[in-house]
Amino acid sequence: MILLLAGTSDARELAVMIQQAGYNVTATVVTDHAAEQLRSAGIRAYVGRLDASQLADLAKAEGAKAIVDASHPFAEEASKNAMQAAADAGLPYIRYERQASSFSSEKVTFVDSYEEAADLAAEKGGVVMLTTGSKTLDIFAARLIGRPDVKVIARMLPRKDNLDKCERLGFSQEQIVMMQGPFTQELDRALYRHFGVTVVVTKESGKVGFVDEKIAAAEELGIEVIVIRRPRLSYGIVHHDFAGVLESLKQHAPLPTA
Questions:
Q1: Per-10-residue mean pLDDT for the chain, 258 residues long?
Q2: Whole-prediction pTM value?
Q3: Keywords in UniProt for this one (predicted)?
């Protein structure tokens, strides 16, 4: 059995491919919606944020032969927990991470933290669209809301807890866009025009995260983009495609021969 941390939209596809290769797969996710998607594909799923000890216990209880970490590129704590759990359980750790996009534009500025992104957005002013999710929304709210020269628009998944957080942090209805992706370049362009966006804040989530479309739409309209770089971790075994993950599993957790 393979224990998979499924934290991205492409993790479901990876889980299915691993199962089709002959392995049993148990996935951990943080939302009921993600669990439903996996279960509909025949993948067992546990819902909840597990620390290293809990992951190690689950791996042992399930008889896991390896831990595959397909958490989001920005889920730094989840990856650290997965690496520690693998070490504690004496299991191979294999990281799947989306290939990063490469940008070359005078309109794109890279930063190393959410705080730096928020400070730069405050410095630029204008209409700032946040496409960084709800987890770090408080960082941007503290630095941007209430400034007379800044209007903030927060775009995120349509979930009640996200709406509650927005309201708690002082976002008005007019500042909240709740939509489920994927987002095309055309849709991004329409949203930028509708709100009169002058600055977009996003994360280096990779091609599957539709960052390319966000930036292409912004470039079309002459909009500045602030991109938050990924955390840099020493993963050990890391692959940017599914084939590499499967090859590593065959090497480090081979299926029993008949």
A1: 89 93 94 89 91 95 95 89 96 89 79 96 97 93 95 94 94 94 90 97 75 90 94 88 95 86
A2: 0.78
A3: Cobalamin biosynthesis, Oxidoreductase
